[in-house]
Design a protein that fits this description.
Blueprint lengths: L3 E7 L4 E8 L7 E9 L6 E6 L4 E6 L4 E5 L4 E6 L6 E7 L3 E6 L3 E6 L4 E7 L5 E6 L5 E6 L3 E6 L4 E7 L6 E4 L5 E5 L3 E6 L5 E6 L4 E8 L2 E6 L3 E6 L5 E6 L12 E9 L2 E8 L3 E10 L2 E11 L4 E8 L2 H48 L7 H20 L18 H35 L2 H4 L9 H29 L1
Length: about 475
């Protein structure tokens, strides 16, 4: 009992956690002590669910889903995929969670990393609840528009749909998986999964607000009455009737809002939450023909309660032992794999060596030519010498000797020398300009076709200059005669 923690959601946007403690008086009685509070929601809480690993998922009228780790006392974060209030949260196994919202969609989440895997769309109005078959391949959902949809969770597609006579508030699968249970306002129907026919119908005189499977096909039903009924769904028999009135109350003035069952110490702990904030805990012993119950304690939270969840911290030790054993076995498997890999590598090396020896023995050695060997040695030596030559050498340090200061006489001499150099350069350029037309004319057709030009001697250059002057004089005289004729 001391390992149990009760979490409640309120109209005041708060999540309150209570730890079960034993009273100091020593009478064997129990009570509750606050363990944590959270105000991450911005609206009234609607529903809650706890996974086997200790993750609490809660939804409120702010259209969000908040996640809390009860073991580490840490806020994991929030999911904001839905655009309407989430009416149902259910965990399936250790790795998946389903959320049904008033926006007409159902989301499937992966609890490791909280990645959204699929969005199921088929309802035209608010989705009230969803149930997942034990195989994980089939899902059933009900909505406010009296719709009943069957989902193929492997592909995420709608498999079948039909209309109900009334609006179903909730839906469950039985422990065997061969039937499903529909919860209406004042009755419970058990239908066959094969042909959807009604197998059992249980009528109740008051309005049903909450139901919970306790053990096998035994269900607890609570609503607008002071009594909670423990019913066998398949047979329709009422096994137990639990009174929820407090020790100081003469009349029951509230209503049962939420029921949650947890197995503890070879018995079942049933926690009942009322709308006025009172919590009543029962211990049930359910055996064939012997059904007993015991009232453990009654507690007043003095807040308006909307939803409730219970988590058993004792499962932590069992899970840790299992995980450690799995890790050890995994390590052993890895070691075996590594050993086999090493052995296989050694064998392959031995085989490769054997093959190499066989090949060497089978292949006869070729005769070596001495001349070729000497040539190869000389080539190798040349390559080594060339590589040494081409090796990068460290840069030589430049010597910067101090320049002597020049006198004014030296400056005048340098200026005269510079002028003489300029004159020589100008004369050479004029001579090259004069020589260019004579060279083009003197070229033979063989030289134009791409053969190398023969450079003329100094005497030939003087002769070419005289010829070019005579041509210029003749051209000028002929031009003057033409002008006179034209006049």
């Amino acid at each position: 009992m001391e390992d149990l923690e009760i979490i409640i959601g309120t109209y005041e946007n708060l999540i309150l956690g209570y730890k079960v403690i034993r009273n100091i008086s020593g009478n064997g009685s129990y009570s509750l002590e606050t363990s944590f509070t959270d105000d991450s929601h911005r609206g009234a809480l609607r529903c809650m669910s706890v996974s086997s690993s200790g993750v609490l998922a809660s939804s409120s009228t702010d259209d969000s889903i908040r996640l809390h780790n009860l073991r580490k006392r840490k806020d994991v974060g929030g999911l904001f995929e839905h655009s309407g209030t989430v009416n149902c949260l259910t965990f399936f196994g250790h790795n998946h969670m389903f959320s049904a919202s008033e926006d007409g969609t159902i989301c499937m989440w992966k609890s490791k990393g909280w990645e959204m895997l699929r969005t199921l769309k088929g309802h035209k109005s608010h989705v009230m609840a969803i149930a997942v078959h034990s195989s994980g391949k089939l899902g059933l959902s009900v909505g406010v528009d009296k719709s009943f949809l069957t989902w193929d969770l492997v592909t995420g597609k709608l498999a079948f749909q039909r209309k109900l006579k009334e609006v179903a508030q909730n839906i469950f699968f039985t422990s065997s998986g061969g039937h499903y249970v529909l919860i209406y306002q004042k009755k419970i129907e058990v239908c066959s999964l094969e042909n959807t026919k009604i197998v059992q119908e249980i009528n109740i005189n008051w309005r049903i607000n909450t139901v919970c499977f306790i053990q096998g096909d035994i269900m607890a039903v609570g609503g607008d009455d002071s009594k909670v009924l423990v019913v066998d769904v398949m047979s329709g028999k009422t096994l137990l009737t639990l009174d929820c009135t407090g020790p100081k109350e003469e009349k029951f003035t509230s209503r049962v809002k939420c029921i949650c069952a947890v197995s503890c110490m070879e018995s079942t702990i049933l926690t009942i939450g009322m709308a006025n904030g009172n919590i009543k805990v029962f211990k049930l012993l359910l055996q064939e023909g012997e059904e007993e119950f015991e009232n453990i304690f009654f507690y007043e939270t003095k807040v308006r309660l909307t939803c409730l969840a219970v988590f058993n911290h004792r499962e932590k030790g069992r899970n840790d032992v299992e995980v450690s054993e799995n890790k050890k076995s995994h390590l052993v498997v890895q070691e075996d794999v590594n050993l086999t890999k090493n052995n296989s590598k050694d064998k392959s090396k031995v085989l490769s060596n054997k093959k190499a020896k066989k090949l060497q023995s089978n292949v006869s050695p070729k005769p070596v030519n001495k001349k070729r060997k000497i040539e190869q040695d000389s080539e190798d030596e040349e390559e080594e010498s060339s590589s040494e030559e081409h090796k990068p050498q460290p840069p030589k340090q430049k010597q910067n000797p101090k320049k002597a200061k020049s006198t004014p006489e030296d400056k005048m001499q340098n200026r005269g020398r510079n002028r003489q150099r300029k004159r020589k350069v100008e004369q050479c350029s004029e001579d090259e300009v004069e020589e260019s037309p004579s060279e083009e004319q003197s070229q033979t057709p063989k030289q134009k076709n791409g053969k190398k030009k023969v450079q003329p001697t100094s005497e030939e250059k003087i002769q070419d200059r005289g010829r070019s002057k005579q041509r210029k004089t003749t051209q000028n005289s002929s031009g003057q005669k033409k002008k006179l004729k034209n006049k």
